[in-house]
Specification:
Layout (H helix, E strand, L loop, with lengths): L1 H12 L4 H8 L1 E4 L7 E4 L1 H4 L2 H13 L7 E5 L3 H12 L3 E6 L7 E7 L4 E7 L8 E9 L3 H12 L3 E10 L5 H5 L6 E6 L1
Parallel strand pairs: 3-4, 3-7, 7-8, 8-9
Antiparallel strand pairs: 1-2, 4-6, 5-6
Helix pairs in contact: 4-5
This protein binds adenosine monophosphate.
The site of adenosine monophosphate (AMP) has 17 residues, from β2, β7 and α6.
């Protein structure tokens, strides 16, 4: 019975649109990490190589220009951000929560629903004038991606765009990002 279920569901994924495939694989986890949040768990996507390849293609298709580098936001932004940077043959740069990067960093503090958070980037990771793409798995309020944009600009580089696998459209995150770049790609919207 289990075999039948797998053999019927997996081949049909590639016949679906990329957005439908992503939505079919994402697992909603209610009340994680706190009550009231429905966490969009992308880990089942990582178990499906064909979908991973389609996601990289989809993110690439959204680019208006080839960037000079991609910054990926901790931690799920590292997964597809690194694949995409490798495919484009450009550097990949990590943005992490405060205190995790070993070398000298620049920081950006941004507002959360309650309180603030700080993200960091190595101070020598981008060159002045570079066009840099920001990637994360999911766009919610846009605060984290906007902090990434500020770190890019603080190094004298330009934000060439943003790309995400998932957008929670009802949180209007794009409004925060549009002033940095209007090239915003989201492969699946809720
Ligand atoms: P925000 O700064 O509000 O746009 O939040 C985006 C960051 O929080 C991303 O790194 C996401 O991975 C994570 N995040 C926020 N909300 C969710 C959610 N409902 N499910 C999964 N990840 C989320």
């Amino acid at each position: 019975m289990l075999f039948l279920k797998i053999s019927l569901s997996l081949p049909s994924l590639h016949l679906m649109s990329l957005e439908s495939t992503i939505k079919a694989l994402i697992r909603d986890v209610p009340d994680f990490p706190k009550p009231g949040i429905v966490f969009k768990d992308i880990t089942p996507i990582l178990e499906n190589q064909e979908t991973c390849n389609r996601i990289v293609e989809g993110l690439m298709n959204g680019l208006q220009m080839k960037p000079d580098a991609i910054v990926g936001i901790e931690s799920r932004g590292f997964l597809f951000g690194f694949l995409l940077a490798n495919k484009l043959n450009i550097p990949f740069v990590l943005i992490r929560k405060a205190g995790k990067l070993p070398y000298k960093t620049i920081q950006c503090e941004y507002a959360l629903e309650y309180g603030t958070a700080v993200v960091e980037m190595h101070e020598d990771s981008l060159k002045k004038g570079w066009n840099v793409l920001v990637h994360d798995d999911l766009l919610a309020t846009g605060g984290t991606a906007e902090a990434a944009a500020r770190l890019i600009q603080a190094q004298g580089a330009n934000v060439s765009g943003f790309c995400f696998i998932v957008e929670l459209e009802f949180l209007n995150g794009k409004q925060k990002l549009i002033k940095h770049s209007n090239n915003i790609t989201c492969l699946a919207q809720y």
